[in-house]
Structures are given as C-alpha cells and as structure tokens.
Amino acid sequence: MDAGGGHSGRVETAREEVREVWGWNMGMELPGILEALDSATFVAMDTEFPGFLHQTPRFASSSERYQDVRRNVDNMKLIQLGLCFFGDGGRRRTWQISFRDFDVASASDARSEASVELLKRSGIDLCRTRREGVDSELFSEILWRCDWVGRRKPRWVTFQGLYDIAYLVKLLTGGPLPPTLPEFAQLVGATLGRIIDVKYLGRFCGGFHLGLGRLAETIGVKPEGVGRTKPGSTP
C-alpha cells in the first residue's frame, strides 16, 4: 500500500474488512471502535513490538517472569495493536492501529534486531508507522476522556498474551507497569476486566501445547486476514 493520507484505511479480506487506523484517520475510526467495544461480547487482541531485551528462563517463577515483562514493556515501544470485536449474531469488526512511537532509524529506541527484521518480512512498514502512525499518548488521553475504564467490559481473548495485556495496559494508563505481579493483576482487572488466554486453556483440553497456527489447523479453523502479523488472523 502506498503511504499518504488519501488511502482509505481499509483492507478487504474474503469475509471481513480490517480497518487500518493511522494518525490522519484516528478521529474517524475511534467512534466505531468505542461503539464496537460497547456491544462486543469478546475482543481478541494482538500486539506487535520490537522484541525483547530480557529473555525469561523457562522455569522462572511467576514473579520473576513478570519482572522481565515489566522491564521489557517499560523500555520498549508498541508498534501495532490489533482488536477484533465479536458481537451478538456472530458479527465481527476488526481494527489494526499503527503507532508512531517506535523509530527504527533511532539507535536510542530499544529493539531486538532479529524481531525487527521479522516484522519487516511480515509486511510491516516501520518507516510508515513512524511517519503516519497514531501518537500513543494522544490515543491514551482520548480513551480516558471517553471513559474507557467506566464502559461495559467484554471478555478479552489472547493467545499466550501476557505481553499483549501488558502493552495494552501501558497504552491505556500512559505510565509504567506496577512494580509487583499482584498490583499488575489488580490493574488489569480494573482496566480490562476478564481475560481468556487460549494457550493456557489448551493445557486442560487434551494437552494442546501448540502454536496458534498449529492449534487452528488441529481444530479445523482457517486463519483469515491480510498478513501473518495482522489482527484478522486471530481465530
């Protein structure tokens, strides 16, 4: 897609429309997002970010794992947020929000080079997100003005989504993550409400220790969307 404010901000797929949100059309798209939030039963979410600074050991405790999440999320910048709202009657509405905060040309913006290269190969134009993306502080401020926390809360669906949740909470609150895991859990409950992690539930459903793509294949769900990293690919 060509850069520029004249683009419609929409990507057509076989069964749905993925609406792209940039700095120049955020004002037009935000009312639809808030309306979808108010009417949705479930919201599937996914994030894109520039990798990890701290790798967590496999057998780390929950508290140790959270401290690595906190260090990573507090020191890195969100690139994209995908939200897919599921309402009554099977209605589905999807938005992909690109943020301008991460500057791929700046050595001061923390990243994993391998992760950045993967994002590029997956079709994310990091120069365009920097040039045309939404300012995260402005986005957070507008959501608070719209009383995001006071609105009806749907169930949020993730897949191994601790980082997705952490980045979304950071975005909504506009500040660093709380210092401890119990405080983080309390903030998640107040900000988002109930969370359903499909990866976690899979442990109790016949031992599904699979990635999202393999899990979808196993249960006969065909991924949809406009690219490997796009929110429309979330079943």
Automatic annotation (TrEMBL):
SUBUNIT field: Component of the CCR4-NOT complex, at least composed of CRR4 and CAF1 proteins.
Main location group: cytoplasm
Q: Decide whether keyword Translocase is in the record.
A: no
**According to the lineage, what is the superkingdom?**
Eukaryota
Q: Which UniProt keywords apply?
A: Cytoplasm, Exonuclease, Hydrolase, Metal-binding, Nuclease, Nucleus, RNA-binding, Transcription, Transcription regulation
Names of the cofactor(s): a divalent metal cation
Note the Gene3D superfamilies from the entry: Ribonuclease H-like superfamily/Ribonuclease H
* Catalyzed reaction equations: Exonucleolytic cleavage of poly(A) to 5'-AMP
Family, per the entry?
A: Belongs to the CAF1 family.
Q: What is its EC number?
A: 3.1.13.4
**Compartment(s) where it occurs, according to its Swiss-Prot or TrEMBL record:** Cytoplasm; Nucleus
This entry's Gene Ontology molecular function terms read:
metal ion binding; poly(A)-specific ribonuclease activity; RNA binding
Name the job this protein performs: Ubiquitous transcription factor required for a diverse set of processes. It is a component of the CCR4 complex involved in the control of gene expression.
Q: Which Pfam families match?
A: CAF1
Task: Give start-end of the signal peptide.
Answer: none
Q: What is this protein called?
A: poly(A)-specific ribonuclease
Q: Name one GO cellular component term.
A: CCR4-NOT complex
| PANTHER family hit by this protein | CCR4-NOT TRANSCRIPTION COMPLEX SUBUNIT
| Organism annotation | Spirodela intermedia (Intermediate duckweed)
